[in-house]
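Example S7 (structure tokens).
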């Protein structure tokens, strides 16, 4: 029964991801809800994995509470790491000349990692052993630093970007890793430095596939514009990068698609200018 539940959730996440992949325009509400469904169902599955062996209602509520704590601690780290998993998947699929899927891998990774995260936190309070505890506590300490890097992050929800992400940044080419060099800035606190190290290591290990490269480059530009920010801000910036990079899914070559994207934006800009000039002329004629 439990295995069927997990397989059903994986199927839902995969299909949801496919709808995102094949949408001409990435809808913010759709990707936001996809993340919430995958992350919550993963965390709840992690609690059920333990609670199914108990008939005590108090134990069920305790495991559920711990799963929600794990969800809050791990939301943004898992969001970032799942994007990394999706980028590796994209690179492998391109290398093997297979059809490319990004968001199905992304959402299934979110689901699975939240299941493991909830199970890991519950195990700290349920029959722990010293070896497991010694490995998990540092991992959750890093997750805490990344998720609560600023005083503005002390909220129950790590993500409230259900409807809008503002102006979508233009696609760009990556230049250099901005995160590790920023460690010399004295304005950063300890938790922010942990986030910088995590971001810097992730930056260096992202494969050169089109969607992944585009997301990395846009985040690099957004960090340069806003180097001191909260985790909530970084969640918002990741959504902006996903929107900007959406046209690079199934793109055969990053350079060609970047040029095509720039040309299309320039053409749209010229069309808008022409329309504005035409409107002004009509106004003057009247």
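Recovered sequence:
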């Amino acid at each position: 029964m439990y295995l069927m539940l997990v397989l059903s959730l994986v199927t839902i996440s995969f299909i949801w991801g496919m709808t995102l992949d094949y949408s001409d325009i990435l809808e913010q509400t759709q990707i936001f809800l996809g993340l919430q469904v995958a992350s919550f169902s993963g965390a709840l599955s992690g609690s059920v994995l333990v609670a199914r062996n108990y008939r005590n209602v108090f134990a069920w509520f305790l495991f559920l509470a711990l799963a929600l704590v794990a969800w809050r601690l791990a939301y943004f780290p898992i969001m970032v790491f799942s994007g990394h998993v999706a980028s590796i998947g994209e690179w492998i699929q391109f290398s093997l000349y297979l059809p490319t899927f990004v968001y199905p891998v992304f959402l299934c990774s979110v689901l699975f990692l939240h299941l493991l995260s909830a199970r890991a936190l519950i195990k700290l309070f349920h029959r722990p052993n010293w070896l497991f505890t010694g490995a998990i506590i540092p991992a959750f300490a890093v997750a805490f630093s990344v998720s609560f890097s600023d005083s503005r992050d002390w909220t129950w929800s790590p993500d409230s970007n259900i409807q809008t992400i503002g102006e979508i940044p233009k696609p760009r080419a990556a230049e250099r890793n901005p995160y590790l060099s920023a460690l010399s800035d004295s304005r950063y606190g300890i938790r922010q430095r942990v986030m910088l190290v995590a971001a810097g290591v992730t930056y260096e290990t992202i494969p050169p596939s089109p969607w992944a490269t585009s997301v990395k480059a846009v985040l690099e530009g957004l960090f340069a514009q806003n180097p001191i920010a909260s985790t909530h801000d970084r969640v918002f910036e990741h959504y902006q990068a996903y929107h900007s990079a959406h046209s690079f899914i199934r793109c055969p070559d990053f350079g060609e698609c970047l040029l095509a994207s720039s040309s299309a934006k320039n053409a749209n800009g010229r069309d808008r200018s022409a329309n504005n000039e035409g409107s002004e002329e009509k106004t003057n004629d009247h």
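Notes on this example. Residues 12-264 form one domain.
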